[in-house]
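README: folding subset

This subset contains proteins for which both the sequence and a predicted structure token string are available. Records are stored as plain text. Below is the entry for Protein arginine methyltransferase NDUFAF7 (495 residues), shown exactly as it appears on disk.
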Amino acid sequence: MLRLLLLQASVNRRTSSACLYPHLAKLSSPALLLTRCLSSSSPQIPNGSYVEHLDNKDNHLDNNDNQTTPQATATISIDRSGLCNPPEHSHGPTSDSELVKHLKGIIKFRGGPISVAEYMKEVLTNPKAGFYINRDVFGAEGDFITSPEVSQMFGEMIGVWAMCLWEQMGQPNRVNLVELGPGRGTLMMDLLRGASKFRHFTESLHVHMVECSPTLQKIQHQNLKCVDDHMANNVGQRTVSTLAGTPVSWHAALEQVPSGLPTIIIAHEFYDALPVHQFQRTSRGWCEKMIDLAEDLTFRFVLSPQPTPAILSLLKRCKWAVTEEIAKLDQIEVCPKAMDLTQSIAKRISYDGGGALIIDYGLNGVVSDSLQAIRKHKFVNILDDPGSADLSAYVDFDSIRHSAQEASGEVSVHGPMTQSQFLGSLGINFRVEALLQNSTEEQAESLRTGYWRLVGEGEAPFWEGPEEEVPIGMGTRYMAMAIVNKKQGVPVPFQ
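--- output ---
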């Protein structure tokens, strides 16, 4: 996942809030009403900054063919603030970890390399040693920070969006609210706390957390302040979040969430962790980039000598793109899992009603080479000590759109729009003003910093602290896209 690097800023001045609101957005009336009615409880005080993809030339394969195919000209903007370069390497005399032994065993057993996608899947979600499985990887003590950890306002604005969609759905009495990859549960915690005054909405919800990590499930249970509630007629018990009196269930996959009810799905920084296949253009056509063992038993990149099954996904992606877009690239990433997940979401929404909100960093077009690794808030080599660093790649929003439209004619796709546009249209400007009126000096500085990181672009103009700690806005680097049942019309704020 593209993450926020924590910069431990110590701020000693209170800045006028006037500089924060140069572009107040016009709200649709439901969003404006809900935003202004949110609780003005004391704000949280997280600190974080944003980073993007760091090109790692060590991870690029040499292309020695003599073809005249144009080389890649598309570039991805990056922000290297707060990072230590070059990437760290830990190959040495230390013994291999269990995951490294497992990966080497797979390669040796097959007698050949594995795909980048398989490597990525094992590194992140191996049941015994995957990066996400047995640890809390979020926050200052973890490896990265996400938007919900930056400010409570992010989860509150997602709550506004969900309530607006619920109103467009006709305010059904029973709704599944699903979050994919909920991390610590911070987004859902702020959503439920902010929506707790709207009892008709919260009483309709059954929250479903799609999380494969037992460790994170426990943290989510704690942050949502869950308790066991004995059901009527002694038919059993259920888990309830005391934040809004809402039942909560956990699942390892979206397919396990019961169907048959209108469904609202939130996928924030989930798609970027789905395994990607990488391809490189050569004299013999597109060859898949694979991972093999070198003579010294370290991992290395190689090219597949024969076409691989993933070539079918590449052909589908190229079919959706214009010829000129493909011609300028010599590397392409495709994510079949993202295509499959999107089709599952689209089909469920077409049958049950509702919608999905996808927020992530990425491009509205073909992605070239974006896979990155982050460990302890630093970019590292992708092949270095697998399982100790997060792996993530840019999300191909155009591919999501085509996948949804191909899956069902009963859904419509809206966006992507920038995160700044999305949050601004939902009323984050009004929310930060309300919180500033009831905040301490320290909270006020944190609110301004968090606000800029969520909706700003580039360096914060109000910052007077150390230059290396200046907050970097992520407002234009993250994008939001919605998939909804056509019967509900165009969702807020995509009108």
